[in-house]
Amino acid sequence: MSVDPVALAVEIGHRVKAARTDRGWTLDQLAAAAEVSRRMVVNIEQGATNPSIGTLLRLSESLGVALAELVEPPRTGDVTVTRAGDGTLLWRGEHGGTARLVANTTTPDALELWEWTLEPGDQHESDAHIACTRELLMVLSGELTIVLDEQSTVLHAGDAITFNGDVSHVYANRGTASATFSMTVFDPERANAGRGSVDSSEASLG
To answer: SUPFAM superfamilies recorded for this chain (predicted)?
Structure first.
């Protein structure tokens, strides 16, 4: 069953606010730690906006929680099955590409499995993740260009790549046909992963 984007935005907002409260942070503190505006944090917590992957990653890393803890439906048992097409849609490209989070584990380390489709001309630019993040990617069809610190690597169906995710990187389809790939992201244990260590006395109450 596909996820209603409005309902997903509301649920993300509740989870961000709960994680912020658990950490004892104000709105200003989270905004500073995640390097986003206070207004953006307010809008997200109110469910008034669908944040980008980049913003969600900044929030999850700052709060010391896995991305999946903010966006995935609650688990109901030890086995979770995601049917084809039912992953959480977290990105849509200008030319019709999509990125879905289809499976994950969250403790003690975060491990995410993604399903991507890039149409010709689509690209996604990703900021550097937290230290020690690793990405493993395999192209299923088409041609995919990976740019790591301005160095490009072209991959075709059956090719795979592993790289450190703590540098800026780009996934791009510069070919003439759709490109599909699966990607696994490993984030190390997040007990001390929050970017910010802002003194609560430095910001106004949220």
So the answer is: lambda repressor-like DNA-binding domains (SSF47413), RmlC-like cupins (SSF51182)
